[in-house]
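Internal ticket - ligand job 420, LLP:
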Amino acid sequence: MHNFEYRQGEFYCEQVPVSRIAKEVGTPCYVYSHATLIRHFHAYDGAFKNIPHIVAFAMKANSNLAVLRVMAKEGSGVDIVSGGELFRALKAGVPPSKIVFAGVGKDAGEIADALKADILMFNVESSAEIRAINDVAASVGKKARIALRINPDVDPKTHPYISTGMKKSKFGIAADRALEEYKMAASLSHIEVVGVHAHIGSQLTEVTPFVDSLKKVVGLIGTLKAQGINIQYLNIGGGLGITYSEEKPPLPQDLSDAISPIVAHLGLTLVMEPGRVIVGNAGILVTKALYLKEGEAKNFVIVDAAMNDLLRPSLYGAYHEIKPVNEEAGHRAKQQVDIVGPVCESGDFLAKDRLLAAVKPGELMAVMSAGAYGFVMASNYNSRPRIPEVLVQGEDIHVIRERETYEDLVKGEMIPAFLK
Ligand code: LLP
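stdout (structure tokens):
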């Protein structure tokens, strides 16, 4: 459920016509709904109300400060993957006691910063990283709380680029090596072992892979207990999918119903890292048709947004629904088109071979489900300034990130003296 819909022939975000946003901030732009963000957070958080838990929003999905502030105000923590994300989270007011830090390549500076901020725990991905964290913790005079990220070798049945819990993946520690690594970690003076973490992939549309993974992890928790290693937190990662097209992913409540019988009796605090399911359908990308082009083999609608603004179609072949902002336009005869951007790459498209009601130059379109992994994956390729982000709350439009200027494009660049 989201707050983007047609009303009296116009596409709205909450109480605001999208055309008004386009007029005020220009196109392309990202638009997020405050009401949807909150509803999605509480759908997830509320589904687990019977088990002690922390929702740590996976901020890699959308790390705008205002979005993080919304999450923090609702009681969310965050899952971070870099020093930059730690910086943003603290700036947005996320309590360090609800921050967990994942990622295969944390460097010493990032580890030290997280220790100084006193985050809840590190999700550790390798033997070498356990030792590195111990060394940094010793140097800053702290004890690091850690969970080991276990690779349960479960097929999440999603796109290979976003599968992370299989043997061939770079993520996590193999389940059969886990006990050995836990013992080693527990023996280190500046490490406190507190948790087990498992994240198997993203955009999962079934609960079975979650259940299979958790069964393996719960077995491990029993073994650890028998060895005197007392686990307090079980982190089930993120990964719940959303509807981009025809998918019928489980609801957070379905996930909770499926896993509660496996985890409720353990007396642990659950940590969860949902990203896409919170923000994905809370955001759209608004773009304007520039030109129509009839090719020899194909027809193209050339729009002002491109792969540098929304990379998912180019990178994963991802499907994003595209709706006309003027509802009337949606009733025109349909044509098969590619929706492409101005970037000089054949791979620059927002939709391929899409049957779409005829579009006219100057018309606005909404690229749906763009709130997760949208702006955060944007780049300046082709020296295109990154586009604004707007948060709608009721009748109000709040610009939460300005459109970049040409000066922003060259910020930090220098022409050395010998070239002057
Ligand atoms: N926890 C960990 C350890 C993760 O690696 C991820 C996502 C999440 C949580 C959040 O997963 P979510 O709930 O959002 O599915 N750029 C790709 C998605 C990459 C996901 C990376 N890890 C895309 O656009 O589909």
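Auto-summary: The first helix runs from residue 18 to 25. The pocket of LLP is lined by residues 58, 61, 79, 102, 162, 164, 199, 202-203, 237-240, 273-277, 312, 316, 372-373 (CB under 6 Å).
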